[in-house]
Specification:
The protein is α/β, with parallel strands linked by helices. 17% of the residues lie in helices and 33% in strands. The chain contains 8 helices and 37 strands. The structure holds uridine-diphosphate-N-acetylglucosamine (UD1) and calcium ion. Calcium ion binds next to loops.
């Protein structure tokens, strides 16, 4: 037996209007699958226990939620939102308390609104509290039908509504607080006698009223906060809105973003003060950028760590570290596992993979270094290529401190080049007597 508050997130639907082979729950919004957002809102409100109802592409949705610490209930086949919540009954057997139910396709529900729902639900002693909002055009949303005294009586889906009901502008936002175990008892009573022949969760409201249980509502003042994603156009609009919010947060924190409209920063990215982000730049994943850095224009960073005073100009870099004052670009690529030492410069048209570069070393022009360790004060000339792969295995290259590698060298690994060594073409060598 357990009490308190749990969250159930309905994510079993296909999302027909996305017109995709992929379940809606899996679509990314600012780099994270849609299912992440309601889980986050529940956690921010202090709800520890979250049950995710999965069905369409269940395996993939479960995999995408891995690491979120949720449990799963499977809905197969998908017979409607009411049936979806009923599928969580077993997972919540013995639970007494409030079940917060939210749909996966309303990602930006603020935690404050969720907290307000819980607060109202408790204060009014409701059996059901539904989140609503008022829209200028209520479209396909379920309509909130209130009695003359203003109490919520029931919800009618737009397709089942009478012409008069369809004029109602207060709509069901798709989030609810229910008391358990009552809600499961009522869910067993619902029938699929509606236009879609589905078991509607919304029918619980009329059943609760018939029982004499209290039904209440919280009206979201800003409809934008409860907007659903039903097609890719809405997803793109939501993405733009979330992206603008993230940029604004950084701007107010002292980061210069020259053109927020073309700057894409994922939610977990950290950026220090006085860093300048130039246009058409994308910062992904767990990227951390220090103070006084310059990034972009036209740079894409994935899970990068940039110490203070570094720069990444027009380059594509991933899972690597730039030590303070290091500079990459323009037009370079860092693949995973690079560590570029303080003050070092990786210049135009260079590609580095799994390569460690010491302090104040230069790889100024066109080249490839793979599985290489470069010391301090090394100069690597244009067109230097480490041939690290023999077709079967990868081999390392080591270049000692203060070595000078002239232009156009193919270094066939495994090779170790000592400190202060010079590797230059014949014509650069002093003439032999
Ligand atoms: C639902 C509401 C509607 C409300 C709208 C708000 C019902 C009957 N209608 O309509 O009143 O205005 O949300 O966005 O609930 N799902 C399952 N299993 C199913 C069906 C759906 O898990 O069998 C999940 C979906 O993955 C989705 C959510 O439930 O997360 C809502 O389903 P959807 O089909 O989008 O409902 P709407 O028609 O939008
Ligand atoms: Ca929907």
């Amino acid at each position: 037996m357990s009490t308190g508050t749990v969250a159930v997130i309905l994510a079993a639907g296909k999302g027909t209007r996305m017109k995709s082979s992929r379940a809606k729950a899996l679509f990314p919004l600012c780099g994270k699958p849609l299912i992440h957002y309601p889980i986050r809102a529940a956690r921010q409100t202090g709800i520890d226990r979250v049950v995710l109802v999965v069905g369409h592409q269940a395996e993939m949705v479960m995999a995408a939620a891995e690491g979120e610490g949720v449990s799963f209930a499977v809905q197969e086949p998908q017979l409607g939102t009411g049936h979806a919540l009923l599928c969580a009954e077993d997972a919540l057997r013995g639970f007494t308390g409030t079940v917060f139910v939210h749909c996966v396709d309303v990602p930006l529900l603020p935690a404050e609104l969720l907290a307000e729902m819980l607060e109202t639900h408790r204060r009014e002693g409701n059996a059901v509290t539904v989140l609503t909002t008022v829209l200028p055009d209520a479209g396909k949303y379920g309509r909130i039908i209130r009695g003359e005294d203003g109490r919520v009586l029931r919800i009618t889906e737009a397709r089942d509504a009478t012409p008069e009901e369809r004029l109602i502008r207060e709509i069901n936002a798709g989030s609810y607080c229910f008391e358990a175990p009552l809600v499961f008892e009522l869910l067993h009573q619902i029938t699929p006698d509606n236009d879609q022949k589905e078991y509607y969760l919304t029918d619980v409201l009329a059943l609760a009223n018939a029982r004499g249980a209290r039904v209440g509502a919280v009206i979201a003042a800003d409809p934008g906060q409860v907007e659903g994603i039903n097609d890719r156009a809405q997803l793109a609009e939501m993405e733009a809105r979330l992206r603008a919010q993230i940029c604004r947060r950084h701007l107010l924190n002292g980061v210069s973003i020259i053109d927020p409209a073309t700057t894409y920063i994922e939610d977990d990215v950290v950026i220090g003060q006085d860093t300048v982000i130039h246009p058409s730049t994308m910062l992904h994943g767990a990227t951390r950028i220090g103070e006084g850095c310059v990034v972009g224009p036209f740079s894409q960073l994935f899970d990068m760590t940039l110490e203070d005073g570094t720069a990444v100009i027009s380059s594509y870099v991933e899972r690597s570290v730039l030590r303070s004052g290091a500079k990459v670009g323009p037009y370079s690529r860092l693949r995973a596992g690079c560590d570029i030492g303080p003050g070092s410069v990786i210049g135009n048209y260079s590609e580095l993979k799994n390569t460690r570069v010491g302090t104040n070393s230069h790889v100024h022009h066109v080249g490839y270094l793979g599985d290489t360790t470069v010391g301090d004060g090394v100069n690597i000339g244009a067109g230097t290529i480490t041939c690290n792969y023999d077709g079967a295995r990868k081999h390392p290259t080591v270049i000692g401190h203060d070595a000078f590698i002239g232009s156009g060298n193919l270094i066939v690994a495994p090779v170790t080049i000592g400190e202060h060594a010079r590797v230059v073409k014949d014509r650069e060598m002093p003439e032999e007597k």
